[in-house]
Specification:
- The complex is a heterotrimer.
- By secondary structure, chain A is α/β, with parallel strands linked by helices.
- In chain A, 37% of the residues lie in helices and 20% in strands.
- Chain A folds into two domains: 198 residues, Rossmann fold, CATH 3.40.50.2300; 163 residues, Rossmann fold.
- Chain A contains 13 helices and 16 strands.
- By secondary structure, chain B is mainly α.
- Chain B has one domain: ABC transporter involved in vitamin B12 uptake, BtuC (Orthogonal Bundle).
- A two-stranded antiparallel sheet of chain B has the order 1-2.
- The N terminus of chain B is likely disordered.
- By secondary structure, chain C is an all-alpha fold.
- Chain C contains eleven helices and two strands.
- Chain C has a two-stranded antiparallel sheet with strand order 1-2.
- The chains are: A alpha/beta, B mainly alpha, C mainly alpha.
- Chains in contact: A-B, A-C, B-C.
Chain lengths: 406, 322, 288
């Protein structure tokens, strides 16, 4: 009923010469992967995020330099209270230095407070709420992969431009859904569209029929799905049952992951357009990593952008610690160093971390291929637009973050 | 109407002296915990659940009323206290007062509805009422729905005790627990408690003796709800959050389980049960949902073969009332 | 207006599940004097049974509609024989606690293996698609659920109220000793009754699989609503629980149209109102 903690010990091999080298420095690191291991987001984070962390440890080469790195992982069941209890115990008892993944915005915002209070680190790759780097920004948190502002900006704008100027929102009733609805509404209104209604559904809903019927009755051109994971795939499937798309309305997936497209199948998902910051088939670097990743998963799944973010974030973290020569156990100090150095890894390319904790990189607008266009398993997307890194996220000039000097 | 047959109760209660001795020993043991290096948050959590279960036990063990909705008091008081501390900036003592008073109010209303039916219906109604509150909290803006209320300031109790310090917080929680325990103890051993037991054994007879049993049952329900709410208010300072988990029916089930394992109708059973169940959750946490399965198995085993619970068995063996 | 009809349909579907489940609860309560807390868990097992039949053995929806209730019903009878029957003579609350424990075990085991998100179960080909009725769009499968549940409910009512077997059953509820004196095997009757109630829940589970997905916790939250339905309707009458089930589904549907915020709570609010006005429930006898 409570948190499931499974400790994974790995990368424990100490270098042979460690005894003689600078042992004055603390060279141990403990990584906590806090994610949804059993619920509706487990495909896009879950065990895959732990695997990505493992691969980052192996690829970092730190073990050979005398570092000892442990990973623990736990299922927060999408409940902020369980997440915070687990996190507090990890920090107090297990001495965890850095939290990875932490998907679910409600969970992320709760853990964000604790991480700051205890001066450890969170590299958030799974949660969407843009508040993490805005009103709620923290010197201990980096928001790595994507956020609601970016999704709204990219997908929302494109849809309004294509003629979808009246919107009805189907919103997951927690921090993430609210943030995504809020940010998308702003973009829709700014682009000349109108939001005519919204209905909120509980997280992890099975039967969307009555919510969809409300959307249908609204006669809006676009039904915007401000939800994610299993909720989004259920909505899409049931919308067809009630003839919503056939009736002329369009479904807009504001946050979709490749794992969602995989579970929907191309026949259902074709034509959907949405934004991601990572796709396995972007370039040689992403392909090489994804192939290795996929071989090590049970279901042979390609990595989602959340899982890719865990790898990318840890690589940068390891580089920074290595350069510092040891683990100072001072979260804010390490994060400050991480912000100084530019990031570079095969998955997200070159990028940087802003003062507010926002990692920036380009955002890609994808469209799901028709079954006839797909060349094989997991060949799902075609790239239809790119927003450059400096325009993809909320400009610092609009930021409400206290860390941003004005 | 008898819920707990005589079989579950120690045969020959020897008054309250034994219980006082055990109480002093328990208080001394608990007071020594910070010296042992045990993770204090674990013990604090267990103490909150122990008080909650004591409150619940007052109803089932002495009044014969099985409430399957006690989470509503825990969770409601938690939300009220959390809101008072975070949004209104009240001091901890006022925050606790708000939470406990709120739970008492809920106790008055739900109690008045629930005691209109008896036996199994009473259980189902309390369950349904707590689910009603769950959905209200899910949608009410002040609870922040699925996100819960997070990062609650702990503050200084009476302006003196800094609750952000684990040791200080521990002793405050301990004092709260012992105080609540003594209230239950006093209630059970008062004329009021005797009437409750009479109602449990035979409600018709109690009525014919001239007792207005509904009033006694309602009063017991309100007292139990208030104390459960007090436990919920204390828990806010430990967990520093208030969330839907505490109002969900699974929590109500856990309260029943704790009391059942420790011993229904025993003074110390709920305390022992709370430590056993919370420790089990802690140490078996790595097994994921198997914890649920194990809890289910404990339920089944307790009901089929071990109806007296741990403390009940001990008390029965020594023929003492504990 | 189209939305109103559509929401009413959704309400009727939920009402079908309420009716099937509260009917099973009433049947079991009548015979065993136990409130079966595991009812939600066996409903879920029905859905999983259909899922396994399809994915492991390639057996489709139609056979599953018969096989799953029987299989889960047998499982229920084993539970009754091995555990529930030992509670005879004890306070009824122990039955509630025992079945609650069984529910935790069953749900926990399924959660361990299948997580908490849903597994898809496709609508059978024969019932795919929908009809545009002019005033609303009717997905055929959902219409089928309503009609079929109604038939099953009425058949159960007929079985219990109008047949000899049902007469024996009702007599055994009233006075088991006397019935035993007539040479009727009462314990076996109790076991079969439990199997019947559980089988009805499993049938509801199969019906629900294509709509609600197959999830370990699909029955856990539903069962509490069904408890409220049972409190409202009273468990004294079979027809009462059927009518209350459907009626509350419809009221819920209406609430979804006129005041969606209250749709989760309306059943519980109604329960409170009924308790204030008529504490024994709408059709119930005064039971303790």
């Amino acid at each position: 009923m409570k948190n499931g903690i499974s400790a994974l010990l790995l990368g424990t091999a100490l270098a042979l010469g460690a005894g003689s080298a600078a042992l004055a420095q603390d060279k141990t690191i403990k990584i906590g992967v806090l994610t949804d291991n059993s619920g509706l987001y487990s495909d896009l984070g879950g065990a895959g995020s732990t695997l990505a962390a493992q691969m980052a440890v192996e690829d970092s080469g730190l073990a050979a330099k005398g570092w000892k790195i442990d990973i623990v992982s736990a299922d927060h069941q999408n409940k902020p209270d369980i997440a915070v209890n687990t996190a507090r115990q990890w920090i107090d008892v297990d001495k965890v230095d850095i939290f990875m993944d932490v998907l679910n915005s409600g969970v992320a915002l709760a853990v964000n407070n604790l991480v700051k209070e205890k001066n450890v680190i969170m590299i958030n790759t799974g949660a969407a709420s843009s508040d993490l780097t805005n009103a709620q920004c923290s010197p201990n948190t980096i928001h790595w992969v994507y956020d609601t502002y970016m999704l709204a900006n990219s997908t929302g704008q494109a849809l309004v431009k294509a003629g979808g100027d009246t919107w009805y929102f189907l919103t997951a009733d927690y921090a993430f859904g609210h943030a995504l609805e809020r940010d998308t509404t702003a973009v829709v209104v700014k682009s000349g569209g109108k939001v005519i209604g919204t209905v909120r559904h509980p997280l992890n809903t099975a039967d969307f029929s009555s919510f969809l019927l409300q959307g249908q009755a609204s006669k809006a051109k676009i039904i915007g799905m401000a939800n994610a994971g299993g909720d989004t795939t259920n909505t899409i499937k049931q919308a067809s049952e009630f003839g919503i798309v056939a009736g002329g309305q369009k479904l807009a997936g504001l946050l979709l992951f490749i794992t969602d497209v995989h579970s929907l199948g191309l026949k259902v998902a074709q034509g959907l357009s949405f934004t991601e910051t990572f796709y396995w088939d972007l370039n040689d670097g992403t392909r090489a990593f994804s192939k290795r990743f996929s071989e090590r998963t049970k279901s042979k799944a390609m990595p989602s952008m959340v899982q890719a973010g865990v790898y990318s974030g840890l690589i940068h973290y390891f580089k920074t610690l290595d350069a510092m020569g040891g683990n100072p156990r001072d979260g804010a100090k390490v994060v400050a160093k991480m912000k100084e150095a530019p990031t570079d890894d095969p998955l997200f390319g070159k990028g940087s971390i802003r003062a507010d904790g926002r990692k920036i990189h380009p955002a890609y607008l994808f469209e799901v291929k028709k079954p006839s266009e797909s060349k094989g398993p997991w060949d799902y997307y075609k790239l239809i637009g790119t927003t450059p890194a400096d325009q993809a996220f909320r400009p610092l000039s609009e930021s409400a973050c206290a860390l941003v000097k004005k | 109407m008898s819920v707990m047959t005589d079989d579950t109760l120690p045969a020959n209660p020897r008054g309250i002296r034994d219980e006082m001795i055990v109480f002093v020993a328990m208080a001394a043991l608990l007071a020594a915990v910070p010296l042992t290096g045990i993770y204090p948050f674990f013990v604090m959590q267990a103490l909150c659940f122990a008080l909650l279960a004591c409150a619940f036990n007052l109803l089932i063990g002495y009044g014969g009323l099985l409430s399957f909705g006690h989470a509503m008091f825990l969770g409601s008081a938690g939300y009220f206290t959390a809101h008072a501390l975070k949004e209104w900036g009240l001091s901890p003592e006022l925050g606790i007062l708000v939470g406990t008073a709120g739970a008492a109010g809920i106790g008055v209303i739900t109690g008045a509805i629930a005691i209109r039916r008896q036996g199994i219906y009473f259980s189902m109604i309390t369950l349904a009422l707590s689910q009603l509150l769950y959905f209200i909290y899910l949608q009410a803006p002040f609870t922040h729905g699925e996100d819960g209320i997070q990062g609650i300031p702990q503050g200084h109790l009476f302006g003196i005790f800094n609750l952000a310090k684990p040791t200080v917080l521990y002793y405050v929680i301990l004092v709260g627990f012992l105080g609540g325990f003594l209230v239950v103890f006093r209630a059970v051993n008062s004329p009021f408690g005797e009437v409750l037991k009479a109602i449990r054994e035979n409600e018709q007879r109690a009525i014919s003796l001239g007792y207005k049993t509904d009033q006694y049952k309602l009063l017991a329900f309100i007292l139990s709800g208030t104390l459960a709410g007090f436990a919920g208010s204390l828990k806010v300072f430990v967990a520093q959050n208030a969330s839907l988990t505490d109002v969900h029916w699974t929590m109500s089930g856990e309260i029943v389980l704790i009391t059942l394992v420790g011993g229904l109708g025993t003074m110390f059973g709920p305390v022992v049960g709370a430590f056993v169940i919370i420790a089990m959750q802690q140490y078996l946490a790595g097994f994921g949902q198997w914890v649920t399965v194990i809890q289910g198995v404990i339920f089944v085993v307790c009901v089929l073969t071990f109806r007296r619970g741990i403390v009940g068995e001990i008390a029965h063996y020594f023929r003492r009332s504990l | 207006m189209q939305a109103l009809y559509a929401q009413l349909l959704v309400g009727l579907i939920n009402g079908s599940f309420y009716a099937l489940l509260s009917l099973g609860l009433a049947v079991i309560f009548g015979m065993l004097n136990i409130i079966n807390f595991a009812h939600g868990a066996v409903y879920m097992m029905g859905a999983f049974c259909a899922y396994f039949l399809l994915n492991l053995l390639g057996i489709g929806y139609w056979p599953a509609l018969i096989i799953a209730p029987i299989a889960v019903g047998i499982f229920g009878m084993i539970l009754e024989r091995t555990m529930l029957q030992w509670l005879a003579g004890l306070d009824h609350l122990y039955g509630l606690l025992l079945t609650f424990g069984m529910a935790l075990i069953i749900q926990g085991v399924f959660q361990n293996y299948f997580g908490s998100s849903g597994l898809p179960y496709a609508i059978p080909d024969e019932l795919k698609g929908g009809v545009n009725l002019g005033f609303m769009f009717l997905p055929i499968y959902r219409g089928w659920v309503v009609v079929f549940s109604l038939i099953v409910c009425l058949a159960t009512w007929y079985l219990i109220e109008k047949t000899r077997l049902g007469a024996n059953l009702r007599a055994a509820t009233e006075n088991p000793t006397l019935v035993r004196a007539f040479g009727i095997n009462v314990p076996r009757m109790i076991t079969l009754t439990y199997g019947l109630g559980v089988g009805l829940a499993a049938l509801a589970g199969v019906l629900s699989a294509p709509i609600n997905q197959v999830r370990p916790l699909m029955g856990a939250d539903l069962i509490i609503v069904v408890f409220a339905v049972v409190v409202i309707g009273g468990m004294g009458s079979i027809m009462g629980s059927i009518i209350t089930g459907f009626a509350l589904g419809v009221i819920e549907g209406l609430t979804k149209y006129f005041y969606p915020e209250a749709s989760n709570t309306v059943v519980f609010v109604l329960m409170v109102l009924v308790l204030l006005v008529k504490p024994t429930g709408l059709t119930g006898r005064a039971t303790t």
